[in-house]
Design a protein that fits this description.
By secondary structure, the chain is of the alpha+beta class. It folds into four domains: 5-199, 3-Layer(aba) Sandwich (Uracil-DNA Glycosylase, subunit E), CATH 3.40.470.10; 208-412, Nucleotidyltransferase, domain 5 (2-Layer Sandwich); 416-527, Taq DNA Polymerase, Chain T, domain 4 (Up-down Bundle), CATH 1.20.1060; 528-592 and 705-841, Alpha-Beta Plaits (2-Layer Sandwich), CATH 3.30.70. The chain has 30 helices and 26 strands. The longest helix has 30 residues, at 418-447.
């Protein structure tokens, strides 16, 4: 028992005693504790800010103001209801925050904090704000993972002797929500969680997982699941690239884990495992008509099992990750976050790897059971939230309907010409090496010194360009954008321009080589990608693509044209393609009621050969329509594209400038960025910017109407009912997101809708499938005799009218079909336009 206990009976004596101890540890107390000494509630923040140090009071700055406003709103509590302190009681500079307070100092502050808490007579609840508070109280790190958790912690009890247990609610530091306003909604939830802990309604529960079930138990569980029709949480785990277990939960507290091995042995015989897999497939087959499975990131579970285990889940009932993305597209969607948001259970995802240290693989199987069971608890609350917020029909009939089609696209993949891939591997690899040597030799020739630089090193490139060559850019970045600025600068020498040009060529070839040529196909010679329905925060509804979940393949949406020949159709098959013509620009024209654009786009749709981008260039540069080039870049090697006097091969035409203006300036892009993206001088870009907005004053009116709508309703909806909530203060960057949301997400959702509507159409050929989503375009793979039928169905749904700005908008779909090369092979690179009629309904 501490002999100084009797001396610490109020806040004043606590401050004095604590400061004396801190000084003895060579620590400076710049901001002592405050609040109600006898409170049962304690708030522990990380460290004081400048204002707190000035006033010698914790949580009185901007972050404190935010905290107390939320606390009053959520829990009807104020500053006087808490004892308030920091872990570190000196101001931590920005540099300290970046590198972290050293372990020795943090250890001293932690020891002092525990001493401080041990002298509080009534403490029972603690709100731990930020990483330092989390680590000091629990020993855990990673506030992003642990926030929202409620954990029991033992602290010293110097008054009664021994220790006492307190409940700790973990949340982000309020200052984090100031710096990243999207975290404010999370902070609100976590402080509301404190209120439920205080009133006794916070009720965590244990999850019981049955591991190594018998064959009979597995059969009975799956039979009972089908018979009941109840929702079943489902999750798998993998080890060393193979499926390690199958987890199922029928309640939020009970699960079974069909683990295939113990720490040292297989659990089931070959015949038993064969029975299990067949039984699982029969259960999965049942999901086609009466889905009941829940998953978190079901794209993983469905594609992995189909590709790795040949077990196909036709569809899921719901995916919690996709449900949360539908509700809050800019928040995290991982299962750890969702567990702390929708259940009373603490963060547990670190258990996934802890078994490797402890050596007990059974802990891994129990972890799998927790994943499966938590899905049911999360879903129970998320369903209500989706319904309450009017997003239920959109989620179930669009988001979930799309998922199995994307799974099929992933597993189907595209066949690769492996011989061509190997040839490219050799030739492009040699080109990269040759360009690197030319780059190095040019530097030596220019500087007159044997200095070698790695073009992939920003630090070395910064030294080369700014210290050695004395080039002028913007700041010290050496990225492509700033290299282009340096290249154009009048003070840049021809030798330096050659170095930059070689750097650019090396970077382009190196990216093509590393990202596309070297990307691994699977053992069956097919290249695959995973389609991410949550992949584009700025434009939810648009898909992104990435490497498969088993590590092969890559992004198939952004393949450069020179990679297209590597991708071939299977024997007897060909490619069909459609692209929504100038889709986003059309949407903006209708939404902003730009009559001139509407007239031009409708003329382009109804009159063959008319080009709305040429029409815009004609208006922008005040020249006749027929004098505007019909192409974007001059190229003397191609008929009709000869550069005029003063222009060179590769220079952009005024059509290109007009197109870039339309694609960028519609979304609040400024003249400086226009200059960079369109490869224009700042003078030309500034004039184009001013002329563009002079021609289309309706754009600013539309922007203002979107801001008004957002402020009035707190959200925006696209044409299909997808919602956007701005979870940050309206900065210029945030306003770009506001403006871009409706056009980009509407077109993204429209293209996705085409995929499932077409493949679900009764006349869609059985052996055909959609193979690729390329943002505003889709590629299908079908037997040659069925290609036109597929295109006619795709075209029908692609050209379905939208209601935008009170008018009907029809976006034309330009169709193409593949034709064979000299060897009779259909390649992605060999598509030619074709006129097809929409399918007759």
């Amino acid at each position: 028992m501490d002999t100084s206990t009797a001396l610490i009976s109020n806040l004043s004596t606590m401050r004095a005693a604590f400061t004396e101890r801190a000084v003895n540890s060579r620590l400076e107390v710049e901001c002592p504790m405050d609040g109600t000494f006898f409170s049962d509630k304690v708030i522990i923040a990380e460290a004081p800010g400048e204002r707190e140090v000035q006033q010698k009071l914790p949580l009185v700055g901007g972050s404190g103001s935010l905290l107390w406003n939320i606390m009053l709103k959520r829990n009807k509590l104020s500053r006087k209801d808490f004892y308030i302190t920091n872990v570190i009681k000196r101001q931590v500079s920005l540099a300290d925050r970046k590198k972290g307070v050293n372990k020795h100092e943090l250890g001293l502050w932690t020891e002092l904090l525990r001493w401080e808490l041990g002298h509080l007579p009534n403490v029972h609840y603690i709100l731990a704000m930020g990483n330092y508070a989390l680590e000091a109280l629990t020993g855990h790190t990673g506030i992003t993972s642990w926030r929202g958790s409620v954990v029991s912690v033992d602290i010293p009890d110097f008054i009664r002797g021994g220790t006492r247990s307190v409940r700790v609610v973990v949340c982000n530091n309020a200052a984090a929500a100031i710096h990243d306003p999207r975290l404010e909604v999370v902070l609100n939830r976590d402080i509301a969680c404190l209120g439920r802990v205080l009133n006794g309604s916070h009720t965590p529960y244990e999850i019981s997982t049955e591991i190594y079930p018998s064959i009979q138990r597995i059969d009975n569980f799956l039979d009972d699941a089908i018979r009941s029709g109840d929702t079943i949480g489902h999750d798998i785990e993998s080890i060393s690239g193979e499926t390690a277990c199958f987890g199922f939960a029928d309640t939020p507290t009970t699960a079974i884990c069909i683990a295939l091995r113990t720490q040292t042995d297989q659990v089931y015989s070959i015949e038993e495992e064969r029975h299990i897999r067949r039984r699982l497939q029969r259960f999965y087959d049942h999901q086609a008509e009466k889905p009941q499975l829940l998953a978190q990131n079901g794209m993983f579970d469905m594609t992995w099992q189909w590709y790795k285990d040949k077990l196909r889940i036709p569809r899921l009932l719901r995916d919690t990750m996709l449900g949360h993305h539908t509700l809050y597209p800019v928040l995290p969607h991982n299962l750890g976050f969702l567990t702390t948001q929708y259940t009373d259970n603490p963060y547990y995802k670190g258990e996934k790897d802890e078994w490797r240290d402890d050596g007990d693989i059974d802990d891994f199987w129990r972890y799998n059971g927790k994943d499966s069971a938590n899905l049911i608890a999360i879903d129970n609350r998320m369903v209500g939230e989706l319904k309450d917020q009017g997003l239920w029909d959109f989620f179930m009939n669009h988001v979930m309907r799309l998922q199995p089609h994307l799974v099929r696209m992933c597993v189907g993949g595209l066949k690769m010409d492996m011989k061509m891939k190997e040839e490219l591997n050799l030739t492009v690899g040699e080109t990269v090496a040759k360009l690197l040597m030319e780059f190095q030799h040019k530097i030596v020739d220019t500087l007159g010194e044997e200095l070698w630089y790695n073009p992939a090193s920003p630090k070395q490139m910064s030294e080369l360009y700014f210290s050695k060559l004395k080039l002028v850019g913007r700041g010290t970045s050496t990225d492509k954008e700033n290299r282009d600025r340096m290249f154009k600068h009048p003070r840049t020498s021809e030798a330096a321009r050659e170095i930059i040009n070689l750097h650019n060529r090396w970077a382009e070839e190196s990216k093509f080589y590393g990202t596309y040529v070297k990307a691994a196909a699977d053992e069956d010679g097919r290249f695959r990608c995973t389609y991410n329905q949550t992949g584009t925060q700025e434009a939810p509804g648009r898909l992104s693509s990435s490497q498969t979940l088993w590590g092969s393949g890559g992004n198939l949406q952004n393949q450069p044209q020179r990679a297209y020949p590597m991708y071939v159709a299977d024997a007897g098959y060909g490619f069909g393609y459609f692209d929504l013509s100038q889709a986003e620009a059309r949407y903006v024209g209708w939404a902003a009621n730009i009559e001139k654009w509407i007239e031009q786009f409708e003329r382009a749709r109804l009159v063959g050969g008319y080009d709305a981008h040429r029409a815009l260039a004609s208006d922008l540069f005040k020249i006749p329509y027929d004098e505007v080039p019909s192409f974007d870049h001059y190229d003397s090697s191609k008929p009709g594209k000869l550069p005029p006097e003063g222009k060179r091969d590769g220079d952009v035409t005024i059509r290109y400038i007009a197109k870039r203006c339309r694609h960028g300036l519609n979304y609040r892009m400024g003249p400086d960025r226009l200059a960079t993206t369109a490869k224009l001088s700042l003078i030309v870009a500034d004039k184009a910017y001013r002329d563009y907005h002079r021609l289309t004053p309706e754009l600013r009116v539309w922007w203002a109407s979107l801001e008004t709508e957002l402020k009035r309703n707190g959200c925006l909806y696209n044409a299909y009912g997808r919602r956007f909530i701005l979870m940050e203060r309206p900065s210029p960057e945030a306003l770009e997101s506001i403006v871009a949301f409706k056009p980009q997400s509407t077109i993204g959702d429209k293209v996705c809708r085409v995929i499932y509507m077409s493949e679900d159409h009764p006349r869609w050929p059985r052996r055909a499938r959609v193979a690729l989503n390329i943002h505003d375009a889709v590629i299908c793979l079908a037997p040659l005799v069925d290609l036109e039928q597929c295109l006619s169905i795709l075209k029908y749904y692609a050209e379905e009218p939208l209601m935008v700005g009170g008018r009907e908008l029809i976006i034309p779909a330009d169709c193409k079909i593949s034709y064979p090369d000299d060897q009779g092979v259909h390649r992605w690179s060999q598509l030619k336009p074709i006129q097809v009629e929409s399918v007759s309904m």
